[in-house]
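Example record for the data management plan.
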Amino acid sequence: MSEDTQGASMDCILQEILAVGRKLEGMDNAMMALTAEMRSTRLEIAGFQSQISGLDHRVTTVESQVALQTDRDQELFHLHSKLTDLEDRSRRNNIHFLGLPEGTEVTDILSYLRDTLPKLADTTFEPPLEFQRAHRLGLKRQNGKDRPRPIIACFLRHGQARQLLQIARMQGPLRLDPLEIRHSADFSKETAEPFSLSVLVYVIWMLNLASSIQPGCGSPRMEIHKPFTTQRT
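Corresponding structural encoding:
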């Protein structure tokens, strides 16, 4: 082999080696870029893990607060129920009267009720009726033709208030000819509203029952008075 041929072969080999070196250099650069990208990805993953850990802590805190709030809500409900019960007990001696004309109690409304209620109920109370207090509700009517203000009376004895309600339930509405005197027990707002709804359902049921009765067989007669609460002004 001549020296020219050997020189050409060496040049070819050198070119191939240089080409391989360039390829390796490119692969090394690509590897470095990939390594940098992986490092960046690991940092992002670490940040996400930190955020997830923080969210887990927040969720745990919120769950604890929700559980605590649930316990407080239950306690508040029980306290509200007890307060409603106490309010109803404090009102149990009260009776509202609607329809008693204004001015009939000439001087003393307590004396007027003491004299009038036994006549309305057509019974004698033993011992005689006694009241802690009584008053009309609302502003005084300017026009004598206006609807009379209701009277709320607080009986001294709960038994007498209950007796009067029982008499009215058995005999129907009290009458002061020609007027019909309506009355109802005194309930708290929380007790009166659900009770009024149940009365409405009962009235609808009774009306449906009455419509199904054949002519000549009679129809149910009922007197249902909605309990109400008012504030003294």
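Summary line stored alongside the record: The CA atoms of residues 101 and 148 lie 6 Å apart.
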